[in-house]
Structure formats: C-alpha cells, structure tokens
Design goal:
Layout: E1 2-6, H1 10-16, H2 21-38, E2 46-53, H3 61-68, H4 70-84, E3 87-92, H5 100-113, E4 119-127, H6 129-145, H7 156-160, E5 173-176, E6 195-198, H8 208-219, H9 230-235
Parallel strand pairs: 1-2, 1-5, 2-4, 3-4, 5-6
The protein binds 3-methylbut-3-enyl trihydrogen diphosphate and magnesium ion.
C-alpha cells in the first residue's frame, strides 16, 4: 500500500493559536514523525509526503527560509532511527535553489538509508508534478537525440520510469488534510487511479488516528480502474 499525503494547514494551525507560522511548520514536523511511525502497522509500505512545492518559493523570504530548515530539523532528530528501522529515505524534487548544506544533508540521508527496504519514505521537497513530467520528457528527448532511445518505444511504463517516483508503485491513496480539496501539483501523473481522501484536520494535529481514518475511507471505496464490476457485467447481459 502506497499512501501519499499533502501536509497542509500549518499556517492556520499557528494562527488559531496566535503563534507565528514558523511554529506551525515545526509542529508539522512532529506530525510527520507521528505519521511515519504509525504507517507500517497500518500496512503502508510506501509513504510519499509533500513538504515544499515549487510554488512555495513565492512565499515571503523569511517563511521560505523556515521551510528550508525543516528537512534538517527532521533528519537531525530522526535519521538515525529511520536508518535503524529499515526505512529508505528519498527526497524527490529539484535541487535547484537549495543551499549546499541542505543538499549535502539530503544526499547523506539518502546514502545512509539506501540499502534499507522495509519501508520507503519519499519526501517531495522543491517538487512540482508538472515540472517532473517536463523533466522526464526532456530526458527522453535527449536520449532520442543521442540515438539511445526510439520514440516508438515510449509507452506509459517507459515514461513513468523517468519520473522522480520511478522506484515506487503508484499511490493507492492521496490524502489531504486541512479541508482543501486540490492536488496542488502533487504526483499528477502518478495520481491517475489514486483514491483521494480529504480530511478536516490541520496537519500539525495529524497522527495515527487520522491516518487510520483515511485508510478506512480508502478501504470503503470500490476501485474499478475504468472497468465495470462483475455484477454489472452480468446485469448488462
Ligand atoms: C503546509 O502548511 C506547509 C507547506 C505548504 C510548505 P501551510 O503553510 O500551507 O499552511 P496553511 O495552508 O497556510 O494553513
Ligand atoms: Mg497551505
């Protein structure tokens, strides 16, 4: 089971408490820790979370700076445990615009956990679904230009293998807390057959119970992948 989550609502959570947005983001990191801990027992093996979108650069510089500090905050406190518990960490998204220290920390987290295979945590950071699709198209075009690929060989699977998420199966469920009902450029290609679950809780309040509720909503859905269910085939005669 692959679950993906748009971590949203940090700012509103802080505002409700009369706190600066930065404290909402810090509380969001704690929610991520709770969620990662709860996931394996709920049969989730792949978890992809949206931490920073390519559109988030348009926020005030001070807030961008605070968001940029979050991966460091998370890895500093948790990377040893993730490594020990068999979690493979991958940060998907562009490295462009990230500080050298941040890139080093990301590389280190990925290298330290590269051989793990119990649980797969993808952190989308400086990620945009459209940008990722464009990057995959460009990569393929380059291969064609160099004579290493043939346009006739491009099918959905070959294209997907050039996306940042190529190592994970497509998400079964995409969860968005905070009441917003949008994908916001998250996993656009990969979302083709994902069930969408929207929850009213703000991300900093998120935890095991909310994840469990989201999976219960998912389990109640009937996934048909464009087909009809067997009973209706019979009914249609
Ligand atoms: C999610 O919380 C964090 C990021 C998008 C990086 P927000 O900062 O979007 O919180 P709201 O939507 O303003 O409440
Ligand atoms: Mg938001």
């Amino acid at each position: 089971m692959h679950a993906a989550i748009v971590m949203d609502g940090n700012g509103r959570w802080a505002k409700q408490r009369g706190l600066p947005r930065s404290l909402g983001h810090r509380a969001g990191v704690e929610a991520l820790k709770r969620t990662v801990s709860a996931a394996p027992a709920l049969n989730i093996r792949w978890l992809t979370v949206f931490g920073f979108s390519t559109e988030n650069w348009s926020r005030p510089a001070a807030e961008v700076g605070q968001l940029m500090a979050l991966p460091q905050r998370y890895f500093q406190s948790d990377i040893a445990r993730l490594e020990r518990e068999g979690v493979r960490v991958r940060v998907i998204g562009s490295r462009e615009g990230l500080s050298r220290d941040l890139v080093r920390m990301i590389d280190d987290a990925q290298a330290r956990t590269a051989k793990n295979d119990t649980f797969f945590l993808n952190i989308a950071f400086n990620y945009g679904g459209q940008a990722d699709i464009v990057a995959a198209a460009r990569r393929f075009a380059e291969e064609v230009a160099q004579g290493r690929a043939d346009p006739m060989d491009l099918d959905q699977q070959a294209f997907a293998s050039r996306l940042a998420t190529c190592d994970s199966p497509p998400p079964d469920v995409i969860i968005r807390p905070s009441g917003e009902q949008r994908l916001s450029n998250f996993l656009l290609w990969e979302a083709a057959y994902a069930e969408l679950v929207f929850q009213d809780v703000l991300w900093p309040d998120y935890g095991a119970e909310h994840l469990k509720a989201a999976l219960a909503a998912f389990a109640a859905r009937e996934r048909r992948y464009g087909a009809v269910v067997a009973d209706d085939v019979l009914a249609a005669g």
